[in-house]
Design a protein that fits this description.
The chain contains six helices and six strands; from the N terminus they run βαβαβααβββαα. By secondary structure, the chain is α/β, with parallel strands linked by helices. Strands 2-1-3-4-5-6 form a six-stranded mixed beta sheet. The chain is globular, with a radius of gyration of 17 Å.
Length: 204
């Protein structure tokens, strides 16, 4: 659907991920938009049953918007590894999920390295799709993509998820070794947000 201008008040981030809250908070700060998370409002996480990043982001954004009456922002993102036929892709978070419901990305990164180790092709890409949803059912989506390669062992304590094994194309540092400002210039999420900002927020 066509994008609408965002109202100059609170925006709900339909996520329980503290790393995403920090990243989006920094991206939205120049626009004066107050960001509140689904976790802070006690909203449940809806099942992500979509077959694409866009479908899963829409599920989360629409559920949050309808539950609160606020405009909601959701992202679905993941790592696509060439040697694994694009996996983990939309199942990136599932690779980290443990039996008790927590997520262990150290174990997920080890699994990736183990399953892709015999293939010399290290190409991969981080993909993010952002969906804005309004309580009346209107929505708009924006995509960003960062090409790169995976490395082992993990390097760096910054970022979150698979960041410590992802080296963006043309760079020597992993996302896990970059400062937030360095990562923001290259990340899939920041690129998707730039498209959203141009359509829905206008000039700073």
């Amino acid at each position: 659907m066509t994008a609408r201008r965002l109202p100059p008040d609170r925006l709900l981030l339909a996520s329980h991920n503290a790393g995403k809250l920090r990243e989006f908070g920094a991206l939205l700060a120049p626009f004066g938009v107050e960001l509140v998370s689904a976790a802070a409002l006690g909203l449940p996480e809806p099942p992500e049953t979509g077959a694409t990043f866009a479908a899963n982001a829409a599920i989360k954004a629409m559920a949050a918007a309808r539950a609160t009456g606020l405009v909601a922002l959701a992202d679905d993102s993941g790592l696509e590894v060439a040697a694994l036929g694009g996996a983990p892709g939309v199942h990136t978070a599932d690779w980290a999920r443990q039996p008790d419901g927590t997520r262990d990305y150290g174990a997920a990164m080890a699994r990736l390295a183990r399953e892709a180790a015999q293939d010399p092709d290290r190409r991969c890409a981080f993909v993010a799709v952002l969906v804005l949803a309004w309580p009346d059912g209107h929505s708009a989506s924006f995509e960003g993509r960062t090409e790169g390669s995976w490395t082992w062992p993990p390097r760096g304590e910054m970022g979150f998820g698979f960041d410590p094994i992802f080296v963006p194309e043309g760079q020597s540092l992993t996302f896990g070794e970059m400062t937030p400002a360095q990562k923001a210039r290259l990340s899939h999420r920041a690129r998707a947000f730039a498209a959203l900002a141009a359509a829905c927020l206008g000039p700073r």
